[in-house]
């Protein structure tokens, strides 16, 4: 696509490179909130059982967010499993 000068918007190509780069360094897994860890990136929105948005797709999970989601899941419930992108170097740590 880069070789076709003038065919594609350079900003779109740059954004595509970022997305492909991130996805190439990650595997997508379906997990429960109990398995959620820091550095995972949400591959889909996190919703309550009623469909309310808690976290948006694309966010990198912090330890604080993981802890809060675990508490929320115990008290109110979340739609699970949750699809996340797991860094390849962390594959051995994730079931």
Which features does this protein show?
single chain; 95 residues; alpha+beta; Molybdopterin biosynthesis moea protein, domain 2; 3-stranded antiparallel sheet; two-stranded antiparallel sheet; elongated
3D structure, described in words:
- This protein is an alpha+beta fold.
- The chain has a domain at 27-90: Alpha-Beta Complex (Molybdopterin biosynthesis moea protein, domain 2), CATH 3.90.105.10.
- Helices cover 29% and strands 20% of the residues.
- The protein has two helices and five strands; from the N terminus they run αββββαβ.
- It has a three-stranded antiparallel beta sheet with strand order 1-5-2. It has a two-stranded antiparallel ribbon with strand order 3-4.
- A hairpin with a 5-residue loop joins strand 3 (46-47) and strand 4 (53-55).
- The longest helix is centred in the N-terminal third of the chain and has 15 residues, at 10-24.
- Residues 91-95 have low confidence and may be disordered.
Concise structural overview:
The chain is an alpha+beta fold and 95 residues long. Helices cover 29% and strands 20% of the residues.
Q: Which CATH first-tier class of the domain at 27-90 would you pick? A: Alpha Beta
Structural category is alpha+beta
| Relative helix content | 25-40%
Q: What is the succession of H and E elements?
A: HEEEEHE
Shape: elongated
Q: State the strand order across the main sheet.
A: 1-5-2
- Rounded mean pLDDT score: 81
The largest sheet is: 3 strands, antiparallel
Which range does the strand content fall in?
Answer: 15-25%
What is CATH's topology name of the domain at 27-90? Molybdopterin biosynthesis moea protein, domain 2
> How many strand elements?
5
Nearest-angstrom radius of gyration?
16 Å
Q: What is the CATH superfamily of the domain at 27-90?
A: Molybdopterin biosynthesis moea protein, domain 2
Number of helices: 2
Quaternary organisation of the protein chains = single chain
Query: Which architecture name of the domain at 27-90 does CATH use?
Result: Alpha-Beta Complex
């Amino acid at each position: 696509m880069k070789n076709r000068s003038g065919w594609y918007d350079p900003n779109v190509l740059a954004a595509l490179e970022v997305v492909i780069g991130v996805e190439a360094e990650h595997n997508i897994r379906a997990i429960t909130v109990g398995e959620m860890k820091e550095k995972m990136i949400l591959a889909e929105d996190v919703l309550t059982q009623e469909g309310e948005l808690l976290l948006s797709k694309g966010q990198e999970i912090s330890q604080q967010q993981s802890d809060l989601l675990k508490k929320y899941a115990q008290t109110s419930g979340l739609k699970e499993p949750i699809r996340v992108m797991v860094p390849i170097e962390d594959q051995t740590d994730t079931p």
